[in-house]
Design a protein that fits this description.
With 186 residues, the protein is an alpha+beta fold. It has one domain (29-185). The chain is 31% helix and 40% strand. A nine-stranded antiparallel sheet has the order 1-2-3-4-7-6-5-8-9, with helices on one face.
Amino acid sequence: MRIFYILILILCWSILILGPINARADDKWSFEKLDGFNYGALAGEVTHGDKLRIIMTKDRCDVVQHIFTFYTYEKPKNISQLKGQKIPIQINDVPGLKAEVFMVHPFLMGYQVWFSLGAHKVDEYEKNLKEFDRFEIQILDGYGFKAEKYFDITVNSWELKDIGDAFQKMKNDCLEISEIENKLIS
């Protein structure tokens, strides 16, 4: 009986120790097809729950919307005023950029803030993103905005491994959604 408990203890220990080695599998792209749109998403490397999303809308498979989220424990009373604001950011050491906040909502013990980097032509944007191994965003101070007032962690990055394959999957999913929708209308 004692050997049985020791084996169980070793098995549990192995799962706890070796589990994080396999956790990197979560860093790969995940895909969703929803009503009228589809997207590919990556988990953040600094804050895992922060996602980088590339979204396509049915019948507009030549355009992508680039979205990312930042989670924060900071709870200023005026955090909801960020909605609609253009926040200064830096992408891969390129300062002087802005991202528009389009949603702020309570999440877990803080807030999740959703940003948009705008709409882009698929082929051009895919080509641009293929130039990078990593996509790093840092929220900066500027224009009367203090990043630390709203965000406890102001930087996150996402590995762009297999970005070409991810775009191809999203294009295929978008075309499939568009075809299904058009068949239902006919």
